[in-house]
Amino acid sequence: MLAEANLDELLNEALLLTTELSTNAVEHARTELDIEVTADQAGLTVTVSDFAAGPVDELTVGVRNRATDIAEVAERGRGLLLVDHFASRWGTTYLRTGKGVWFRLDRSDRQEMASATSAPPMSVDPPDSAGQSAVPSAGAMNVLMQTTPDPYAEDPLPDFAAGLLNRVAEMVGAAGGVVRLDRGDGQGAQILARYGRQPRAGNDLLRVPLAVHRPYTGELELDAAPTAYAQPLAVLTAERLSLHLENDRLRRADVRRQAWLTFLAEASELLAQSLDVELTMALIPQLVVPRLGQWCAVHTTDEWGRLRLAAASHADESMLPQLHATLREAGPDSVQARLREASRNGTRTALGGPMEGFAVPLIARGQRLGTLAVGRHQRHRQDPDEIAVLEDVARRSALAIENARIHAERRRVAQTLQQSLLPPVLPVVEGIGFAAEYVPTGGDVDVGGDFYDVVPLPDGRWLVVIGDVSGKGVQAAAVTGLVRDVIRVLAGDGKPLPEVLSRLNETLVERGAGRYCTLALAAVGPGEGNRLDVGLHLAGHDRPVLLRSGGGPAAFVGTGGTALGLLDAITSPTEQFTLDPGDCLVFYTDGVTERRRGRELFGTARLRDAAAPLAGFSADVVAARLRSTAINFSVEEPRDDIAILVLRNDAV
């Protein structure tokens, strides 16, 4: 518009005043705005309108009734002061949708002002007769207000602050100046920018605080008298600098929050990887120190509600004995009392000296597990963000401890239940050797369906049993216990093995909940000489491996039958054979043969080949060697239970 009207000489004033009115509209109205520009040969008129209700009087009263000293102008009227100074005319307008401020710049007024002063546009006008700085030129004001940080600099604030300080110091004729900033990081106030000599303390020192939010604090100092324009120019410069300092604070706060989120994610991942209670509690202080505090202590609550120190850490390892001693001290004002208060009330509690810090309760799923105590750093105290992160760490730690405890309880229950399904010890029988190996799957937290047993028969023989119930977990364990008890009862009553299998099948069909079972039963008793007579029955189970001590290859024996629990009627062929002294019969479950290495299975042929060299060894050695061979076949955890039962003729 100015170019078309040949009003280039009004450019600086027009830009400066339009910027001020636009800034006021954005800052105070916080709505969209309209800028209307009208130019003719005589001058320029600009109207800035917003869409917020309310008067403009609070912005204009300080200008219309201003005193000689500009420092008396209202806080929110300094922008209009520039309008009042440079504009030929200005005023306000009111519309149904909002309000506006307009100004007029006439070419004749600009020519008169240019002839009244010889100062260049980018410099301060010469001092007046009283020795005070005269009115700065519009060009200098425009350059001051348009100075911005370098958007591509890694840290643009020092250069930006130095540029602002240099310009305002030249405009007010200051001999020196400094900008100090304290970011609240424990390093105290630091010099962000300096101009000329160090400002001298005295009446002529102009000091303006920076309008920044905590933890930032700072001030602008100029070695200049607070003259008519020096004070508001310093304030305007401080406000402009404060705006970018606030941006820096928000940016750093955002980066810091992102770092905290990353820290919490990594802490959660580490805590989730451990399902051991003691290891989890030992890991918590290592995560906290020194990131969130100088020291950290984890206390857990026992069944009587008493706190017990579970783990502790200190940034200075030499201070650990003193930390432990302080945590053990009793008394109404001791750390122990504060910890009990935090645990009892379920709220964060401040710790007094000498170990200042916070105690945060450990609560998971509504249960109070203990406390997490963290000591303050020597340089600074935790800010609200750090305290919030600390409370978040406490929640995640409590959940990790509770999960580890649940896992430990589950493992204990699984082990107890599994042990109840297996004989505590195998019987010691003269002339007969028994040995067994059992490897549960699922890291001891799931009950498998594999079991074995050795039961005495009324006729003096022994019944060797190995079986596998389909599935895992409590239901499989219940069916396994049912199968084991039915076999013991029926075999103890002297029932023939075919009848035992038939009745067991009926029981599983009625009460097995859809699960089936494979069994291998062998009735073993003394035969002619030192031999053992064996009557073998297979109900859908893999055939055992027979090892002859006198030589010959290992071989599978037995005839397959029907698995139990699937059909109303079953077949269970009987195979009779003898074991000479030193002979072994190896029973196993499919956890051995189906041991997987990639797509390759261990298989029955590999089992037979692994057992062949063990002919002549004791039952314990055979069972242990086969277990080791099966386990070492793959680096993966077993996907199914592994059970091996060895029967050997130990007659000499």
UniProtKB/TrEMBL annotation:
Residues 113-135 are annotated as: Disordered. Keywords: Hydrolase. Residues 429-649 form the PPM-type phosphatase domain. SUPFAM superfamilies: ATPase domain of HSP90 chaperone/DNA topoisomerase II/histidine kinase, GAF domain-like, PP2C-like. It holds the Pfam family HATPase_c_2. InterPro entries: Bact_Sigma-Reg (IPR052016), GAF-like_dom_sf (IPR029016), HATPase_C_sf (IPR036890), HATPase_dom (IPR003594), PPM-type-like_dom_sf (IPR036457), PPM-type_phosphatase-like_dom (IPR001932). Gene3D superfamilies: 3.30.450.40, Histidine kinase-like ATPase, C-terminal domain, PPM-type phosphatase domain. CDD domains: HATPase_RsbW-like. This is PPM-type phosphatase domain-containing protein. It comes from Micromonospora lutea.
